[in-house]
Amino acid sequence: MTGWVYKSTGSYYTVKTDTGALYDCRIKGKFRIQGIKSTNPIAVGDRVDFDLDQSTDETIGQIHTIHDRKNYIIRKSVNLSKQVHIIAANVDVVFLLITINNPTTTTSFIDRFLVTAEAYGIEAVLVFNKIDTYDEAALEEQLFLQYVYSQIGYRCLRVSALEVKGLEELKALMRDKVCMFSGHSGVGKSTLVNALEPGLDLRTASISDSHQQGQHTTTFAEMFDLSFGTKIIDTPGIRGFGVVDMAPEEVGDYFPEFFALKESCKFNNCLHKEEPHCAVKKALDADAIAWSRYRSYLQILAGDDEQYRGDQYAEERKSL
After folding, report:
1. With contact defined as beta carbons under 8 Å apart, do 218 and 182 qualify?
2. Distances (CA, A) of 34 to 11, 31, 37, 146, 291
3. What is the DSSP secondary structure assignment for residue 178, as one 8-state letter?
């Protein structure tokens, strides 16, 4: 039998066949010894083949084949530095939910996520959520970030699930696609999915007052069929986003504004650091490239996974 993985708990997988039947499945042991470094060899969104084991009272499927993925989005595993975690597979578009405060989403987090989406060929849209809660200062920050990323070429949306703002535009981008919602805990992923499809009634929680961080309401990644022809993958909140397996010379290729200037650098292997006649550094000095983006680039280049919660755009905003 063949189906799509709709839910992953780490040990069990819910697989939905093309006829709509749902089966609880496990992985055959061989997947554990095939040299797969991921903490989860199978991810939500995977297309898999499985057999039913009906030798017991409970019917359990045994997954034996993973179909080739068209793409996937991946990050370093939180607790196992040498392993990675596949967040979702076979995604048409990923929506990164961003909040200016309550909780804060930093540019370093945004940039790391976007670099990974670029590297794996997934369209990314930035969704600035909770716009109904912003005071004047927060609104100014949101509009500044929107300007920075829209200038690069990323589509940016402004939405409010509570006030039903921007939802029709969001729906239009989601229609007939496999979509993924991602972001920190507390940015409103589940609340937004509920606003798009009220019948789902996903569990939500408030922000911690003491740390201004979200509480994990989505424990495992799970895919849902929405009424307007969309599949949505709701994912657990992410605190940090470690970039995986990128050679120094290719990192700049996943910053679109850097890649556009690459041919104008004197050296074809320019890392945009100390090299002479670097088009990226020249654009940076002319304020044609955001300093926050360049700092994110240097952090990724240095493998600096400890500092990517830093507020990189704060100083840049002070200078304006």
Report:
1. no
2. 17, 6, 9, 43, 42
3. E
The two beta strands, 13-17 and 22-27, are: antiparallel
Element at 231 (helix H, strand E): strand 230-234
In this structure, what are the phi and psi dihedrals at residue 123, rounded to the nearest 5 degrees? -65, 135
Helix (H) or strand (E) holding 138: helix 136-152
The amino acid sitting at 300 is: I
Over the range 288-298, which residues count as b (16 or more CB within 10 Å of their CB) and which as e?
Answer: ebbbbbbbbbe
> Residue 244 — very low, low, confident or very high, per pLDDT cuts 50/70/90?
low
What six digits make up the tokens of 191? 């609340």
Percent of the chain with pLDDT over 70: 81
Pairing of strands 2-8, 123-128: unpaired
> In terms of DSSP H, where are the helices of the chain?
107-119, 136-152, 167-174, 189-196, 248-251, 256-259, 279-285, 291-301, 314-318
Strands 178-182, 222-226: pairing is unpaired
Tokens found for residue 275: 């090299």
For the segment 186-196, what is each residue's pLDDT rounded down to a tens digit? 888 888 988 99
Encoded tokens for 241: 């986003």
Would you list the DSSP string of 12-29? -EEEEETTS-EEEEEE-G
CA distance 144 to 141: 5
CA 126 to chain centre: 10
What's the Cα-to-Cα distance from 65 to each of 30, 48, 62, 92, rounded to whole Å? 10, 6, 9, 22
Q: Tell whether omega for the bond before 103 is within 30 degrees of 0, i.e. cis.
A: yes
